[in-house]
Amino acid sequence: TQLLEQSPQFLSIQEGENLTVYCNSSSVFSSLQWYRQEPGEGPVLLVTVVTGGEVKKLKRLTFQFGDARKDSSLHITAAQPGDTGLYLCAGARGNTPLVFGKGTRLSVIA
Amino acid sequence: NAGVTQTPKFRILKIGQSMTLQCTQDMNHNYMYWYRQDPGMGLKLIYYSVGAGITDKGEVPNGYNVSRSTTEDFPLRLELAAPSQTSVYFCASSYDRGEQYFGPGTRLTVT
C-alpha cells in the first residue's frame, strides 16, 4: 500500500495551459514537501508546507496543504517547457524518514 | 559549498562483482539517506543514518550494506551485484527529518 498517492501519474500538456497535480493520503503529516526532478539529476526541493490550509506561491507554482494535513496540491499556471520533470511529494511523520510518493511526470510541449 | 557529492557517476558491473558507491556532504547534516530509483519510478529508501555510527534499514535493504564512520561520509556497498540492482542511486542528507538535499546520482548497470 502506497502511503502517499500522487495523481495523475503522467501528464502531457501544451505550453500556456494550467494544471493541477495531487498528493493524497489517509495519514496525517506534520509537514509535506514538493520536489522537482529533471532528467538525469537528483530531486530539488521546491517548497515545504507545514500548517493545515497553508498556501504557498513560487512564481507560477501554487502549493496548498489540506486542512487536515493529509493531502496537498500543486497548481501550475501557464506551464512552460522548463516545468517539465518529475514532481514528487514527500510527507514527514514522527521519527520516521520522509515518505515519498511515486511522482507525477509532467511534459510541457512548446 | 558543494552540497552532496556522489561518485562514480556511471558504473557497469558484472554479476557477482562488488562495489562501493561514495557519498559525501559538506553541510554538517546529521541525517543521510540512500535511495534507488528504477526507470520511470519514484524513490525507494535503501538505508538511512541519523548520525555517525548509527544506521537503519529502509524499504529495500537486501543486497546492500552501509556504514557511517563520519558525519560527512555515507558509503553504500553492493557485495554480490545482481541484475535487479540495475538502477540510479541517490544519496541525500538533511539537517533533521525534514527537507532533504540530493546528490546528482550514480547510474549503475549490472550485466
Helix percent of chain B reads under 10%
Structure annotation, total helices of chain B: 0
- Backbone CA Rg of chain B: 13 Å
Sheet with most strands of chain A? 6 strands, mixed
Count of individual helical segments of chain A:
0
What is the N-to-C order of secondary-structure elements of chain B (H for helix, E for strand)?
A: EEEEEEEEEEE
Taking pLDDT < 50 over at least 5 consecutive residues as the criterion, the unreliable ranges of chain A are none
Proportion of residues in β-strands of chain A: over 45%
Series of secondary-structure elements of chain A, N-terminal to C-terminal = EEEEEEEEEEE
Low-confidence stretches of chain B: none
What's the overall geometry of chain A? globular
Oligomer: heterodimer
Gross morphology of chain B: globular
Q: What would you report as the Rg of chain A, rounded to the nearest angstrom?
A: 13 Å
Strand content of chain B: over 45%
Largest sheet of chain B: 7 strands, mixed
Which chain pair has the greatest contact?
A-B, 21 and 20 residues
Total number of beta strands of chain A: 11
How are the SSEs ordered, and which strands pair?
The complex is a heterodimer of chains A (110) and B (111).
Chain A: E1 5-7, E2 10-14, E3 19-24, E4 31-37, E5 44-49, E6 55-58, E7 61-65, E8 71-76, E9 85-92, E10 99-100, E11 104-109
Chain B: E1 4-7, E2 10-13, E3 19-25, E4 31-37, E5 44-51, E6 54-57, E7 64-66, E8 76-78, E9 87-94, E10 101-102, E11 106-110
Parallel strand pairs in B: 2-11
Antiparallel strand pairs in B: 1-3, 3-8, 4-5, 4-9, 5-6, 7-8, 9-10, 9-11
Which features would summarize this protein structure in a list?
heterodimer; A: mainly beta; five-stranded antiparallel beta sheet; 11 strands; globular; B: mainly beta; four-stranded antiparallel beta sheet
